[in-house]
Specification:
- With 400 residues, this protein is α/β, with parallel strands linked by helices.
- Helices cover 38% and strands 18% of the residues.
- It has a five-stranded parallel β-sheet, with helices on both faces. It has a four-stranded parallel β-sheet with strand order 7-6-8-9, with helices on both faces. A four-stranded antiparallel β-sheet has the order 10-13-14-15, covered by helices on one side.
- Strand 6, helix 8 and strand 7 form a beta-alpha-beta unit.
């Protein structure tokens, strides 16, 4: 069928008035250098779907600098086939219906691909729509069900089956715990799924999950669950939630006399602002760490320093950067912007050198993962603790 692409449709979509669900990223984080689109050059639409408003926005907005950095880098080096990326930030408003509308807007705008979403509950809504439209989707969400939606969907980070297993391994083998309580957010697929994988693995490794407790996403008072924890006397409490609810829970627990080790996962990006010093002694997993000593990781940190100075890198934003770079790589290998050709190139990805490490996909579009980095909170700072390998405990490749 060749590699023809509807550039007239792209230009038409760019000329149309922008919907309320779109926020142009350059209005939030302006570069002084190369713009997102070059004057006089036909551009190609790429959508990033994330939460600019609503409950997920405090967790999603810090992702923007690295999204911007990736697009800037691609455009500054000639774009893709000489075509600069026209970045569309589509706000899913932190809701399932908002996620569906954002995906539909991406389709209407004739995008080459969609990057996102960040929260699993949002990506689960987006994936079927983009799959049906046969538009490549590279998600940063970790729910294993997302990639299973279809062959146009790819996950550029480890999934929760892997993360839950490795966190259970860490709790049993490194923390030497045998009694755990799991606290999960009933309104978020990410939290519910990850909790399930952790509990299954922890029990399978001989640990005892005393009980699992649930709370609603907007909860602010956790007294009833905390009371149960105090009576049960676990050694660890695993909270696979987002920063706000997990931080509030830990703060209230410590203030009410709970003396356990708290564990979380990759969504604790800004938890310190909610938990403060009560986090000390807790652990969490991450998708990336500044000590990752690879050329791509070092280059990313230098570029970030050059553009943003002392602004800390949001660890969860690094896979977003990789997703854009991977899209450029796939389109280049495809030789055109045709959706099916880019999909095929993505599926064939083996050992792509990203800032987070080597990226390869299995037959279902899931990234093949084998190592999880664990951080520990000490004096309100995140400190590298170790990297857990799937077949053994290991700590190579990380500078503390």
């Amino acid at each position: 069928m060749g590699c023809a692409f509807g550039w007239a449709a792209v230009k038409k979509a760019m000329a149309e008035s922008v919907s309320l669900v779109i926020v142009v990223v350059s209005s939030l984080f302006l570069f002084s250098g190369v713009p997102f689109t070059h004057a006089g050059a036909a551009s190609v639409n790429v959508a990033a779907i994330l939460s600019m408003t609503g409950i997920a926005s405090p967790h999603n907005k810090p992702l923007l600098p690295l999204i911007e950095l990736a697009v800037h880098e691609i455009n500054a080096t000639g774009g893709i086939f000489g075509q600069p990326i026209h970045l569309m930030i589509l706000d899913n408003q932190s809701t399932p219906i908002g996620s569906k509308k954002a995906a539909e807007k991406a389709i209407e705008s004739n995008v080459v691909a969609v990057i996102g979403a960040h929260w699993s509950s949002h990506s689960l809504e987006i994936a079927p729509i983009l799959q049906n439209a046969e538009i490549p989707m590279i998600t940063i969400s970790t729910n294993p069900k997302i990639a299973l939606v279809g062959n146009y969907v790819f996950q550029v980070t480890f999934n929760d089956a892997f993360q839950g297993k490795m966190l259970a391994k860490f709790a049993r083998e490194r923390l030497h715990s045998s009694r755990a309580v799991v606290v999960k957010n009933i309104n978020e697929a990410y939290s519910m799924e990850l909790a399930g994988y952790f509990s299954q693995s922890y029990s399978g490794m001989g640990g005892n999950v005393i009980f699992e407790a649930v709370y609603k996403g907007k909860a602010v008072d956790f007294k009833s669950i905390i009371t149960r924890i105090k009576k049960a006397s676990p050694e660890i409490v695993f909270i696979p939630g987002y920063s706000r609810d997990s931080g509030l829970f830990i703060n209230q627990s410590v203030m009410q006399g709970v003396n356990v080790v708290f564990m979380g996962a990759d969504a604790w990006d800004d938890i310190s602002q909610y938990a403060g010093e009560t986090l000390d002694g807790s652990y969490r997993s991450v998708v990336w760490h500044p000590g990752l000593d690879t050329p791509q990781s070092r280059a990313l940190q230098q570029q970030h320093q050059d553009q943003y100075g002392d602004l800390p890198i949001n660890y969860s934003a690094v896979p977003w950067y990789d997703a854009f770079m991977l899209l450029k790589d796939a389109a280049t290998r495809a030789g055109c912007f045709k959706h099916s050709k880019i999909r095929d190139a993505l599926a064939e990805t083996k050992a792509f050198h990203g800032a987070t490490g080597l990226i390869s996909f299995d037959e279902s579009g899931e990234m093949i993962a084998n190592t999880l980095v664990i951080l520990k909170y000490e004096k309100e700072r995140e400190i590298f603790f170790e990297a857990i390998a799937d077949n053994d405990i290991d700590s190579h490749g990380i500078n503390e």
